[in-house]
Amino acid sequence: MRMPSPDLHEIIYVSTLADDAPVRVVAHIAMQSRSHNQQSDITGLLVFDGLHFCQQHEVCAHKVAAVMARIQGDPRHRNVEVLHQGPLDQRRFRRVRLGYTSVEDIELLERLQRLKGQAAVDGFAALLSGLDVDG
């Protein structure tokens, strides 16, 4: 078993699209995030079901607080809840600054939202297996 990198961390969080934000803002979020992630050496995936977001970030440990502050300060979504944060042995998305996919089954993210810690990591990994990701 690989030991986690002391410098690489994973954050998995869920949130809800803000009441006053149109769904079309999600494309803008993805575009802005890809640019920011390129500059900040962040990789990950954004999943959206029409109302809820689930995002996974792979980021250097010293940047975790700044990443979360940026996310929590974004008015385009609300109810940000971290499901997992911790060391990561290797990136899942080495060449993808921000993969994006949408799901039509709103219950997928609702089920994931109830998980914490390693259960959230496992649930996210299971979710990945059925997704077509645009990177």
Provide an overview of this structure:
The protein is of the alpha+beta class and 135 residues long. The protein is built from four helices and five strands, in the order E-H-E-E-H-E-E-H-H. Strand 2 and strand 3 form a beta hairpin. The chain starts with a strand and ends in a 7-residue tail after the last helix.
SSE arrangement:
Elements: E1 5-17, H1 25-40, E2 43-48, E3 52-60, H2 64-72, E4 77-88, E5 99-102, H3 106-113, H4 118-128
Parallel strand pairs: 2-5
Antiparallel strand pairs: 1-3, 1-4, 2-3
Tell me the structural class. alpha+beta
Overall pLDDT level: 88
Number of domains: 1
CATH topology group? Alpha-Beta Plaits
Write down the secondary-structure element order. Answer: EHEEHEEHH
Report the portion of residues in β strands.
25-35%
- The oligomeric state is single chain
CATH architecture: 2-Layer Sandwich
Shape: globular
As laid out across the biggest beta sheet, the strand order is 4-1-3-2-5
Question: How would you sum up this structure in a few lines?
Answer:
By secondary structure, the protein is an alpha+beta fold. Helix content is 33%, strand content 33%.
